[in-house]
Amino acid sequence: MFGLRFWSWWRTFVQAQGRGWKGARMTTPYSQDLRDRVLAAYDRGMKTKQISVIFGVSSSWSRRLKQRRRETGETTHRPMGAPIVIKVDRARLGELVREHPDATLAELRELLGVECGLSTLSEALKELGLSFKKKRSTQRNRIVQTLSNDGPNGVHGRRMSMPVA
Q1: Which residue has the higher pLDDT, 95 or 147?
Q2: How many CB atoms within 10 Å of residue 80?
Q3: What digits encode the pLDDT tens for the residues 61-99?
Q4: Residue 152: what are its φ and ψ, rounded to 5°?
Q5: Do residues 30 and 39 make contact, with C-beta atoms less than 8 angstroms apart?
Q6: 115: Cβ–Cβ under 8 A, 6 or more apart, which residues?
Q7: Sequence-ordered list of residues with C-beta below 8 angstroms from that of 81, at least 6 positions apart, any chain
Q8: Which range among 28-42, 104-118, 146-160 shows the weakest confidence by mean pLDDT?
Q9: SS3 state of residue 25
Q10: From residue 32, how far is each of 37, 44, 117, 129 by CA, in Å?
């Protein structure tokens, strides 16, 4: 759809904006003043198209704002981002790790008695400064090369179907 020339320009544009490769940042919510002015225009009987042109907002946003005021009475913006929910009691998790140092994440989750992802437990352990690396009870095996690398281009002891020039 877009050619190489466009993407080259786009990369330069994004880097010039100081945004790195993450692309555009999440936008900030419209101000309360703008929200109040849009709702006042609706109250005066203006049409959605007129409001969107005058205030420079999308017609769908202004309709949703009016609908939300009608249904819930809210006119302020809602909090952005995911809600922070702490499911893991960090003190209890620390105790369990000291009591059961060889427990896996799944076993720790079972001992805690909470429903959460293993990644949640892993993050909680990181926050507590606890390493989840296991110590070996036996000596580590030696790593030896099992195949010789005497063939051309990394081919292990086989002839190539075509000769290499």
Answers
A1: 95
A2: 9
A3: 999 999 999 999 999 988 877 766 677 888 898 899 889
A4: -75, 145
A5: no
A6: 87
A7: none
A8: 146-160
A9: coil
A10: 9, 18, 38, 42
